[in-house]
Design a protein that fits this description.
By secondary structure, the protein is mainly β. The chain has one helix and 28 strands.
């Protein structure tokens, strides 16, 4: 079965060595740009593989954009301001804007593999690599930046998926759309980026067949297999497949062939309009109305 351009397998996306321009001691990683590969424009989503004993990036922070990371495999640590916290598969870390410099370090003799993402607001964003130190604004490096602010950080930014309570979701448009969910973004302080761990059983639908008018959406499959519908096209997807749904794109839904575990995310925007084309309704500010 041919697969459309909205889906890629992680390891089919070319890897880009990091750091990109200069060799910096202690940093070594490979980046796979998943969001770019499937046409997302409102956010970036990547897989970053960090070499054993190395850091994935310079310590840095953003003053506008939100960021987040989910650990796929390996063990290591995340530094957030004054804190150094252990991470393992299933760890999730949210980075609200502010002077909370952070990066991840791979420990032991295996790589640390991260699914990471965040907003794309380049015209507004300001940030800093604190250990160089170098500031940027609107995508341009600044010759003279502000003095570095005191470092902040909160241990509550780092959680593990197993620590969270599950809730059962039943869609109000499709009676077969049921899933078990754990919300990752809210406990870690994120308010504009949604990241959710979900499980769906065979015979259920991941959601009602729908599309978002103004927000990007994505799915990363952790375990299991599903038939995925995107518009009029059906295809199969399985572990380490990444599916992107750009704003205004075709409606979509997943139907598991076996128990399906996945991460899903997108933007939180009160002005978004969700359209359910086969049900003949749309959701505007939380209320359903005829199309």
């Amino acid at each position: 079965m041919d697969r459309p351009g909205c889906v890629v397998h992680v390891w089919d996306v070319p890897g880009e060595p990091r750091p990109r321009y200069t060799a910096l001691p202690g940093i070594g990683a490979v980046l796979h740009r998943l969001g770019d590969a499937v046409g997302l424009t409102h956010m970036g989503v990547h897989v970053r593989t960090i070499e054993p004993g190395k850091a994935g990036t310079n310590r840095h922070f953003h003053l506008v954009e939100e960021e987040w990371v989910y650990v796929l495999s390996g063990r290591g640590a995340v530094r957030i301001g004054p804190h150094r916290l252990p991470v393992r598969p299933g760890s999730f870390v949210g980075f609200p804007p502010g002077p909370r410099p952070h990066h991840f370090i791979a420990e032991g003799d295996t790589s640390l593999v991260l699914l990471e993402g965040g907003e794309r607001r380049p015209a507004e964003d300001v940030g800093c690599w604190v250990d160089i130190p170098t500031w940027w604004r609107a995508g341009r490096l600044l010759e003279h930046g502000d003095p570095l602010p005191p470092e902040e950080g909160d241990r509550a930014q780092c959680i593990h998926v197993d620590e969270l309570e599950t809730r059962r979701f039943q869609h109000d448009v499709d009676a077969a759309a049921r899933r078990t969910m754990r919300c990752l973004n809210r406990p870690t302080g994120l308010v504009r980026q949604s990241v959710v761990w979900a499980q769906v059983e065979p015979g259920e639908h991941s959601t009602a067949f729908h599309t978002h008018d103004r927000t990007d959406e994505w799915v990363f499959i952790l375990a299991g297999r599903a038939r995925v519908r995107c518009g009029d096209v059906w295809f199969e997807a399985g572990p380490h497949d990444f599916i992107g749904h750009p704003a205004g794109g075709p409606a979509h839904v997943m139907e598991p062939a076996e128990p399906l575990t996945y991460l899903m995310g997108g933007e939180i925007n009160d002005d978004d309009i969700v359209i359910y084309p086969e049900a003949g309704v749309r959701r505007v500010r939380g209320r359903l109305e005829p199309i």
